[in-house]
């Protein structure tokens, strides 16, 4: 069972209270962008086996979107943080690196 | 390979069954092959089989990190149907379904194909309209399906409650030649036939890297060392994103868990497959008498082959309304598989940015039924370097061009 702490209201929410939103930190491309950029934004996904940054919504709580750092290979949760950011905060990165010394921050590679 | 037959059984009965040979060999890898397939699930093995059978290419290795058939092929609920909405889907799933009809004879291995009939229940007015549309589409595609009334549904499935309070049955899309097959046997039958053609099935050997030069694959690094190849086929379902990463490209795919469960065995009570897509539940009865039950996918990326409990709870809750008699059944086993979901819920059978590297994936929650057709199409693609008519539309560039084969609008679920 997945439990994520909502960074807004502090509730430790169990999965049925949450709505999943998949990959976080996607850069949005709209009208005027190239087909490649638009395809990447819409469809190409990192889908890593390991550290992953995701969007979640506290659907049956405060209703707000937040972000989570999680391991898809073990279901370990490293931490959650507010959605008003374009990259994971330093304390989350530190937590991940403490648990996964080999992991390299890679969200910047997201096109 | 010694053929299986009634005479073989009689012969072995007379000598204490000492003469059965191993179904397939377990060789060490050679230095290189004409073609390597990564992944010994149904799709990988079928690709190898039709490479040999249809195209005469037999210097082939199928490389599997675990045991053959241990991925989704050995974890699925074995529903076979071809009542899809879009033309390219109907073509490849119907090809697969028709190959299933004679697969046991073709492979000399009993895959227990059971075309017992399949019902997709319409439980909302939206579904009624959707399935009527599918019936018309199927007629044009040459796929035999029909729309049947709630009363007819009740005749076919007496244990069903068709006027439940939340989701009454308003009719059904019926495919009389849909059904099930034995999942392990499909993998084993193809594996045995591949081995008999001289192909190497190498189990317990994980591909760790893909080597390429000048835009062409030269071979793969594995836990048993480097193996060279002239052509590479990636057929690894949930792990496709990883293989693509090794080869340096990205896919429109996310890996999520899908679960299934079986009940204790009971006497025969339902001789068709029933799917209820609005409530995400589907059920059939195995030859052993277990009710085989599946539901919807989890909503987050996951590689653990474990799903969330509340999903099976939801599935059972919905099915108990439709089948009140299962409410006191005990569930015996529950498991999960990692399915590869694409943006339009249709698969990829495609060339890749690397010239001699091909990919077959994205079958998601519904690829067991496609195994023979998919292997057929993938073998043609690998042998000729260009897709035939079955595979052409399933290329990975359709997402850039907006040429979706949108089955998510058609069913919502696609088991
Ligand atoms: C619970 C559940 C129910 C389902 N129900 C149905 C259904 O009713 N009807 C239907 O049609 N479909 C169903 N499906 C979907 C179906 O199971 C799959 O689409 C199909 O089996 C995929 O086959 P495959 O050969 O592509 O993949 P798999 O059988 O998963 O084979 C891929 C293989 O690749 C191997 N592999 C992965 N990475 C590597 C590596 N690096 N090196 C070497 N080998 C590797 C894996 O170990 C695996 O054996 C269901 C799936 C699940 C999980
Ligand atoms: Zn909250």
Automatic annotation (TrEMBL), chain A:
It holds the Pfam family SoxD. This is Sarcosine oxidase subunit delta. InterPro entries: SoxD, SoxD_sf. It comes from Tabrizicola soli. It comes from the Bacteria.
Automatic annotation (TrEMBL), chain B:
Residues 36-79 form the Rhodanese domain. Its EC number is 1.5.3.24. It holds the Pfam family DAO. The keyword Flavoprotein applies. Its cofactor is FMN; FAD. Keywords: Cytoplasm, FAD, Flavoprotein, FMN, Nucleotide-binding, Oxidoreductase. It catalyses: sarcosine + O2 + H2O = formaldehyde + glycine + H2O2; sarcosine + (6S)-5,6,7,8-tetrahydrofolate + O2 = (6R)-5,10-methylene-5,6,7,8-tetrahydrofolate + glycine + H2O2. Its main location: cytoplasm. It is found in: Cytoplasm. Transmembrane segments: none annotated. It comes from the Bacteria. The keyword Oxidoreductase applies. Belongs to the SoxB family. This is Sarcosine oxidase subunit beta. It comes from Tabrizicola soli.
């Amino acid at each position: 069972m997945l439990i994520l702490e909502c960074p807004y209201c502090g509730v430790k929410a169990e999965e049925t209270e949450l709505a999943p939103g998949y990959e976080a930190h996607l850069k949005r491309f709209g009208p005027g962008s190239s087909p490649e950029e638009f395809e990447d934004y819409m469809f190409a996904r990192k889908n890593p086996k390991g550290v992953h940054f995701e969007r979640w919504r506290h659907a049956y709580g405060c209703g707000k979107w937040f972000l989570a750092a999680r391991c898809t290979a073990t279901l370990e949760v490293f931490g959650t943080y507010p959605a008003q950011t374009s990259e994971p905060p330093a304390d989350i990165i530190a937590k991940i690196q403490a648990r996964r010394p080999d992991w390299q921050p890679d969200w910047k590679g997201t096109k | 390979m010694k053929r299986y037959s009634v005479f073989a059984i009689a012969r072995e009965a007379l000598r204490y069954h000492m003469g059965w040979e191993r179904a397939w060999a377990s060789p060490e890898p050679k230095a290189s092959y004409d073609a390597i397939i990564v992944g010994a699930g149904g799709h990988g093995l079928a690709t190898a089989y039709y490479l040999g059978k249809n195209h005469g290419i037999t210097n082939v290795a199928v490389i599997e990190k675990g045991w053959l058939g241990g991925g989704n092929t050995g974890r699925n609920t074995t529903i076979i149907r071809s009542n899809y909405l879009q033309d390219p889907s109907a073509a490849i799933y119907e090809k697969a379904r028709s190959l299933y009809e004679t697969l046991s004879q073709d492979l000399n291995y009993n895959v227990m194909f059971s075309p017992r009939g399949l019902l997709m229940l319409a439980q909302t007015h939206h579904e009624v309209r959707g399935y009527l549309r599918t019936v018309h589409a199927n007629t044009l595609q040459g796929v035999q399906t029909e729309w049947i009334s709630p009363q007819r549904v009740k005749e076919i499935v007496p244990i069903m409650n068709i006027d439940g309070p939340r989701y009454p049955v308003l009719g059904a899309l019926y495919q009389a030649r849909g059904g099930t097959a034995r999942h392990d046997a499909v993998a084993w039958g193809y594996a045995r036939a591949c081995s008999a053609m001289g192909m190497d099935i190498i189990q317990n050997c994980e591909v760790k890297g893909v080597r390429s030069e000048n835009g062409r694959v030269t071979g793969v690094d594995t836990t048993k060392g480097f193996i060279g190849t002239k052509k590479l086929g990636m057929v690894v379902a949930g792990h496709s994103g990883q293989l693509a990463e090794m080869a340096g490209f990205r896919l429109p795919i996310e890996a999520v868990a899908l679960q299934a469960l079986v009940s204790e065995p009971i006497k025969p009570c339902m001789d068709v497959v029933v799917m209820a897509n609005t409530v995400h539940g589907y059920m059939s009865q195995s030859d052993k008498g277990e009710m085989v039950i599946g539901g919807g996918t989890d909503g987050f990326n996951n590689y653990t082959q474990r799903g969330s409990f509340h999903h099976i709870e939801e599935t059972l809750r919905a099915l108990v309304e439709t089948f009140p008699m299962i409410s006191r059944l005990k569930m015996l086993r529950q498991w999960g598989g990692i399915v590869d979901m694409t943006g339009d819920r249709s698969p990829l059978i495609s060339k890749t940015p690397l010239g001699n590297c091909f990919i077959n994936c994205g079958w998601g929650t519904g690829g067991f039924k496609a195994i023979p057709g998919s292997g057929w199409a993938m073998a043609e693609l690998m042998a000729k370097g260009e897709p035939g008519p079955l595979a052409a539309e399933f290329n990975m560039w359709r997402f850039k061009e907006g040429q979706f084969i949108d089955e998510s609008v058609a069913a919502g679920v696609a088991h």
